[in-house]
Amino acid sequence: MGGREILVVENVWKRFGGIVALAGVSIEVREGERLAIIGPNGSGKTTLFNVITGYVKPDRGRVSFDGQDITGKKPHQIARLGIARTFQIVKPFANLTVEENVVVAALSRNRSVEEARRHALHVLELVGLYDKRNVRAAMLNLAEKKRLELAKALALNPRLLLLDEVAAGLRPSEIKELKKLLYKINSEGVTIVMVEHVLRAVSGFAERVVVLHHGSKLAEGRPEDIAKDPRVVDAYLGSLASQLLEV
Amino acid sequence: MSFPTQRELVTALAVLIFAIAADGVAYVFDKPFLANSIYLALMYALAGLAWNILAGFTGLVSFGHAVFFGLGAYATMIAMLHKIPAVLGILLAGGVGFLAAVLLAPIWLRLKSHWFTLATIATAEILKLSFIVWPAVGGASGLQAPIAEPGEELYYLYFRGAYLYVFIAAVLVAIEVVVLWSILRGPIGYKLQAIREDEDAAMALAIDPLKYKFFALAISGFFTGLAGSLYTIRYRFIDPFTVFDLISVSTYIALVGIVGGIYTFLGPIIGSFIVVPAAEYVRSTLMSIASRYAALHGVVLGAVLLIVSLMAPEGVVERVRAKMVVWSKVVKVVREWVVERS
Questions:
Q1: pTM of the complete model
Q2: If one looks up domain A1-82+160-167+190-247 in CATH, what number appears?
Q3: Is there a contact between A156 and B205 if contact means CB atoms under 8 Å apart?
Q4: What are phi and psi of B31, to 5 degrees?
Q5: Count of the separate structural domains present in chain B
Q6: What domain range includes position B205?
Q7: If interface means Cβ-Cβ distance under 8 Å, which residues of chain A face chain B?
Q8: Quick check: B224 and B65 in contact, CB under 8 A?
Q9: Which of A207, B21, B142, B202 has the most CB atoms within 10 Å of its CB?
Q10: What ipTM does the predicted assembly reach?
């Protein structure tokens, strides 16, 4: 810890029609860190990722990566700078094989298909999809599709990895395996920011947790402190209560 | 299965050699109709392959490729009228097709899926109407190629029958096959297909969709322009109704790709050699037995398209390939059984 800041989000606002998705969010991520962003449904987590990666233009505010202002840059430019992301709703290239999916990603760093393929196979081995490499991506189950998302992001050789609910829908044993893999990636110097719905998914992994609620930062701190924070409990209980009340 | 295979390249070149051989047979036995059918099949194969780099590999389905075809046809015609050798006129047609694609890209590539398709149709119709009212290019009455004096046959590529033209067309298709095959197997092929599958996901992998769509469109325009020039050098007369036609040009180009199979490299060539000679045969048969109903050959074509859409939406090539896989499995099982018994 204590590395310099690799990603700085400053006072970012985003409104969709009448809904304020982000209301002045500021977050700093240090190089080499494992940060989790959690929050109830609709708290603005995915919108924040979309702003960072250029899919959504913020109404106000600034995003900088490695000291460079990247606000308003296109997604492919941001990806080239070294920020990789996964999508909450997985986006495999369904008609391509698993290997071809990852080759596409590896081509961002390799000129020839042969080199890219070598790199892709290495990444597939890492995420445990090597045996499925010749399967059409559409045929994978959800857990495998999530691993494929991760493989594509990793094949970019990113400096910062943004993971949007990679643990959701996975079995506890799969989550454990995933965390082990992410540890390994992080130990090689890749900064990881993961968005999750629930704290449990990030406990034991994240060094620091940011809680979003109604588009702004509600709390920030170590996972064990966050779990005890009454405001966080309220936010989750509140949303849970309203979900229960909905018929 | 969407990446072009070695076998597809070999098959494509074999089809071209077969076409030339069949053309030779047609010449020896004096079958002008057969030679002309082969020529048309090659012309549509040229345009169909170019169409498919957009539709099949990039996911941009055009029903307005008459834009490039028609402009290419006019470019070659105007070149010949200015006493430029027809060979240069053919190259010029490619250049004009390329240029048209580059100029249309800022408009077309703003649009996705069916909106893109509508824009292509609209553009082709606008061009047709513009050429109809534009006297400098002959207006509605079209343009006639200069009569080649004796000794000028090669200069203006003026030959009797389709026999020699088949060679020119086969060479152009061969060049296109090799060029597109190598492009689509390389990094660009991967990136185009990623864009086709999911543009957002492609961007997350540092791919600029606009750049690659632009490339695909430009190369598509180039080769479709060449196909237009093939029309001009063979038929020597063009008008806007013919070369910008929504059915016999735009739809036909798409049709040969769809029948053959758009997710295969080989699709448009195979589709073209099935659809075009069949359509020509039906047309000429109807013409000779009931000329009043010759226009009905379109009905037959429509039926073919419906049948393919219903029974083999993946196209003929993919169908045959699947059948071949099944057969090779059957052969393997039988062989193993025989080996076991002996």
A1: 0.91
A2: 3.40.50.300
A3: yes
A4: -120, 80
A5: 1
A6: 6-277
A7: 53, 55, 74-77, 79-80, 84-85, 87, 91-96, 100, 103-105, 107-108, 111-113, 116, 152-153, 156
A8: yes
A9: B202
A10: 0.91
